[in-house]
Amino acid sequence: MKHNSPILKSKLSRRRLLAYGAATALSTPFISRAWAAPVEINMLAWYGHGEPDIVAEFEAANNVKFKPKYYAGGDNMLGLIAQSPPGTYDVILSDGEFVQQLNAAGYIEELNAADYPFDDMLYKDFQQFPGHWKDGKLFSMMVRFGHLGVSYNKNAISAEEAMSYSCFWKPEVKGKVGHFDWHLPSLGMMSLYDGNGAGLWDLNDSQWDKVQKTTLSLRPQVGGFFDYGGTFNSLKNGEMQAMCGIGDWITGVLEKDGAPVGSVVPKEGGIQWTESYCIGKGSEKADIVNKFIQYMLSPEGQVKSAQMAAYPGFAITKSGRAKLIEVDRKEAERTGQVDGMANDPVTLVKEGRIHYRNIPVQQTLEDWNDFWSEYKNA
Amino acid sequence: MSVSKQPAKTPSSDSKSARQRQKSDLFQQVLRLPIVIWQSLFFIAPLFFLVAMSFFIVRNYRMTEAFEMKNWLKMMSRDYFWDSYGLTIGLATLATLVVMTVAFPAAYTLAFRVSENTRRWAIFLLIIPFFTSYLVRIFSWYVILAESGVINAMLGYIGLGPYIMLNTKFGTIVGYMTLTLPLVIILQTFSLANIDRRLVEAAYNLGCRPWRTIIRVVLPLAKTGFIIAAVFCFILSFGDFVSPYYLGGSKPPTLPILIVDTVKSGQQWPRAAVVAVMMMVTLFIVAFGGIAAAYRRRNA
């Protein structure tokens, strides 16, 4: 059969193939430019912050794409940054207590305080959060916070019992007390139980010894040490009936699903986790990251943060709280984010029942970690 | 008896066969090359780096090249390291004993009591669990082992329980079995299937009782495969992170968990390397000991 079509007749010679190939390769950049590929923003954060429920709207509006790298724990974050070249991460979500170290190591850029709604903050401490400012310059912007205390199964521990860390030693929950596997919050709680109050992180030798003894006395009650998934599952299936080292950031997700669990700030006091955004040193996308931080501080961003699928956090701005009450009053009431409620997180801070999470002052993190390993093996 | 006539060797035929031998040797060398390159790049070089890393130090969360003994001194002087070490060896040994014992009846049945076709299907079914993620398989045990899970629900019908199985050493052993049992059954089956059946029949014909036949005839003949199966079981259990963490509740932690803990807090990769090197040394001893035992000939 004879083909008359020039396409069918033409033979693809090697020279022609090379020419076509070269033309295709050379035109590729123009094709992708024509489609205006989104700008990639490298994010270093706790799990959930780069997920669609938080960033999708911002991505669509600004033609950007977040590439999150997730970590668990502040020293894990510092390690990841230390091992990466400058400019690897454009936006860093840090635990409040680690911002100081990020700044000291020169890992973050200075921010322009005028860009952010400081006048709208719910509490004056949030405007000058420890470690976020140095020599009058702003280096990190707080975006959300949450409280850690007693997390418990309501069928095993009563609301009254949960008002003291002593419920962890209750004989009925022997073998059913779990730990979130990070020394800082758990040992902080033991320090509060020992009566160290506001000085919970600043322990002298005898106080540190006492905290260790108290913690070791809890060991027979302990049923396991868990990561986020394990903590979540063990509370959900009832294997663990009390959990040390966490708060509403985990039980809140379960509670919304109908599980009989909750978290309270006990009479000995609770610990505040604080999350703040920083711009990574050497980032070439500082402008768009700055815009993202502003977005997260806007009422819409604050609502997204409060409703985050991975773990909820409290709003830090008045307008954010007002918007949350407007769009999701049930969640606002569940978390006490309505003015006048007894468990209003800001009221708890003002009453001095909440202590900002910090790193040990008189011991090193290594000392605490060493003890934690011993404790797990005890 | 006839004597074949050998062609007379000439210098040219000698050099030709020498050239052919050289060519064949070269071919053999080239064939071996990929595995040599692979092992050098991805096993020996990282192993050297791991050992070197155990002498490095961490400053400001950044690993710095050095040659200091402090990581070794630190880890070797800690009770929790030796507690984890003992626990990990104990659990891996227990898992090996349990798995080898549980696997044997299944392997014996597959090797001697079923048709070739059934055996093939059984082997195929034993491979299927490896199609799914090990982590997923471990999480599925939550539904079965939980206090409100399937086993306790069934026991509840006859008035027993509930028993705590999750976050216990029992849970860890169940996880290890999930990982190793199918593999051990397959290895045992192949070992048993390759036994010369005439020897088993001879033992039977000579009046040897079934158990005695298994102990004195079957097991010695399958010794090599059985020891290799046991070594694999031990190695996989010893190095497993998932089961002791998710089913054992990290309570107390095994060495793989200790590695993660060490890295997680303070980015102490060099100290984690110390733990890893100790694990490697232990596994080398177990593997070489096992292989030596497997191929040792009985003295005449």
How would you characterize this protein structure?
The complex is a heterodimer of chains A (378) and B (300). In chain A, a hairpin with a 2-residue loop joins β4 (133-134) and β5 (137-138). In chain A, α11 crosses α12. In chain A, strands 1, 2, 3, 6, 7, 8, 9, 10, 11 and 12 form a 10-stranded mixed β-sheet that branches. A two-stranded antiparallel ribbon of chain A has the order 4-5. Chain A contains 16 helices and 12 strands. Chain A is of the alpha/beta class and 378 residues long. Chain A has 2 domains: 39-145 and 273-339, Periplasmic binding protein-like II (D-Maltodextrin-Binding Protein, domain 2, 3-Layer(aba) Sandwich), CATH 3.40.190; 146-271 and 356-377, Periplasmic binding protein-like II (D-Maltodextrin-Binding Protein, domain 2), CATH 3.40.190. Helix content of chain A is 40%, strand content 19%. Chain A has helices at 6-9, 14-34, 52-62, 74-82, 99-104, 124-127, 183-193, 205-218, 228-236, 248-256, 286-297, 299-306, 318-327, 329-334, 345-350, 365-377, and strands spanning 39-46, 64-71, 91-95, 133-134, 137-138, 141-153, 177-180, 222-226, 242-247, 261-264, 270-279, 354-356. With 300 residues, chain B is mostly helical. Chain B has 2 domains: 18-64; 78-295, MetI-like (MetI-like fold, Orthogonal Bundle), CATH 1.10.3720.10. Helix content of chain B is 74%, strand content 2%. Chain B has helices at residues 11-53, 70-76, 79-113, 116-127, 134-145, 150-157, 169-193, 197-205, 210-221, 223-238, 242-246, 255-264, 269-295, and strands spanning 57-59, 62-64. Chain A binds chain B through residues 72-73, 75-76, 78-79, 81-83, 105, 175, 178, 181, 183, 222-227, 230, 233-234, 237-239, 365-366, 369-370, 372-374, 376-378, and chain B through 60-63, 78-80, 83-84, 139, 142, 146-149, 164, 166-167, 245-246, 248-253, 258, 261-267.
**Assigned CATH class of the largest domain in chain A:** Alpha Beta
Q: Can you count the helices of chain A?
A: 16
Order of helix and strand elements from N to C terminus of chain A = HHEHEHEHHEEEEHHEHEHEEHHHHHEH
CATH superfamily of the largest domain in chain B: MetI-like
Helix-and-strand structural type of chain B: mainly alpha
Q: What separation lies between the terminal Cα atoms of chain B?
A: 36 Å
In round numbers, the mean pLDDT of chain B is 91
Number of DSSP-assigned strands of chain B: 2
Give the number of domains of chain A.
2
- Unreliable residue runs of chain B: none
